[in-house]
Please model this.
Amino acid sequence: MEASQFKSDQYVRFCPGCGDHAICMALQKAMAQIGIPTHEVAVISGIGCSSRMPHYLNTYGFNTIHGRGGAIATGVKTSHPELTVWQMSGDGDCLAIGGNHFIHEIRRNVDLNVCMFNNRIYGLTKGQYSPTSPKGFVSKSSPFGTVERPFIPAELVLGARGTFFARTLDVDVPTTVDCLVAAQQHKGCSIVECLVNCVIFNNGTHAWIADREQRAEHSIILRHGEKMIFGANKDKGLAIEIDPQTFVPRLIVVPADDARVLIHDAHQQDPTLHRLLALMGQERNLEVAADVQDELPIALGVIRDVEAPTYDAAVNEQIQNVRASAKAHTFDELTATLEQWS
Model:
């Protein structure tokens, strides 16, 4: 299939330079690569810039109200398990008003593909701070700097016992396509955190990794079964050691040829290492004034991908079992079993 088959006839109304353009293009490429016909795909969203995505994809689509994309997507997938269901959401739509739906669709492991666009700002409503904005961030709703501590999306996903988490960057379309394809192939709730730039209200929010000259030194693309190596010259690797004072495991940077360099295992059920990987580089995002010198890179690519029973399959199996053992199989048979008056 061709990416053009998944493009709708609607004019794309993202601002010029918005990172959402790249994710939209990557979605169309990923859907074509996956090869599922357009009439077997549904795209559900809430409210926000990213939530306009159903308009730009030639599939079934539904724009719900703010924060309720997860609830509707769960209903669609459970009632129509034959559909491939994508949920489009932003850091405000997904983690603020929609936060409760977000953690429970993960906990239930509904077979959904969730793209969470994280630009650390409310873009559609013109520049208020969001649940992922760093502490001290100055915005229209925090003119003296927000005093709140931000969410780290990966922590929420793993805390809700998530089975799939990936992170990608708007300027890296090939990695984004790979993550989206992997998300669809995963049976369960797949969360892809898409780091995007809001050129109008929060320009440069991910500049420390989006800048081409810095990206190789400040990020690592994880691939299952491959060594964790990064750097402009591929001369650095990640290893793990136990802190001698706290006895807590931590990641360290070592030469790429060091025997301790880890091999990425996205399928490891224990989330300990996945959590360490997902939290690398996040200190830079927690506070505006923080002077972080951590040499650990931020992890991109598929970080966690493990198997577990899915909610929608369990519900439909239960329905079939109840039907098979029921005495009444039609409405007339049901009424015939009840007390009647003539």
